[in-house]
Amino acid sequence: MKKFIDTKPTYVANENLSAESVYIDGIPLEDQIDGFTTLNVSGRELVPYKNLTNEVSGADGTMWLSANYGERTIKVKYLLKARSDTEFRQKFELLNFYLSKKQATFKFYDDPLYFWVGTVTAIEDFPVAVNSGISSFTITCNSPFKRRIEAVTFDNKQDGKLRISEPAYWATLPDEIKIVLKARSGNIRLVSPRNLISLTGNFSAGDTVILKPSDSPDNNSEIMLNGIEKFELLDLTSDFENFTLKYKDEVSCNVDADIYIRLRSKHL
């Protein structure tokens, strides 16, 4: 079963934003810098594979080894207008400030449910000797995927099995897995089509286990039992930080329990 959420943008902007207006950490630049307008954005469409190959002596071409998606580059073309030289400098000071974060979230007005994480890595020189002109900056996203801003919660209340019913086509690590036990057990096993999480301990009916797997060096994985950190419950055979889920996956549990999974799907 799926719990529906409000899919409206989290930031309510004015109606004068351009169709592809850029947001940085949830803030639209056009609301913050008078005279700034996003003209167009490129680089959000198809992403090619990067081939890993090996040259073979005496053979034509190369031997294919593997292929992976590389980083994504998004180019934002903008117009900046000022009434005087002083105002022009002030507006660029503001623009530099908003673009200065080494890594930030970026989203766009025409795609309000998703965000990218990236860094401004290139800028185009602004026309000289004018206070109005067109230029651009480039955002490099180490991951080519965009993520949902709001998580969707799935549960197993319908028939004991939790199903990912949202079209999450790319396997994604959940934000949180919550298990509310209805019976005593010495072991909890969560099984997906590809992975397993196994916990060993003294679990009682009414206990709440919260799992927060992370594959980011900036965020540590967590396992909580009734609000207390209990990472030692995790069995070494578990695929805890690889417990990714995607569309039509089913998750089952060996113990009678209510299961809730919060997932922010990723998309190309």
From TrEMBL:
Domain Siphovirus-type tail component RIFT-related: 48-140
InterPro entries attached to this UniProt entry: Dit_BPSPP_N (IPR006520), Siphovirus-type_tail_N (IPR008841)
Protein name, per record: Phage tail family protein
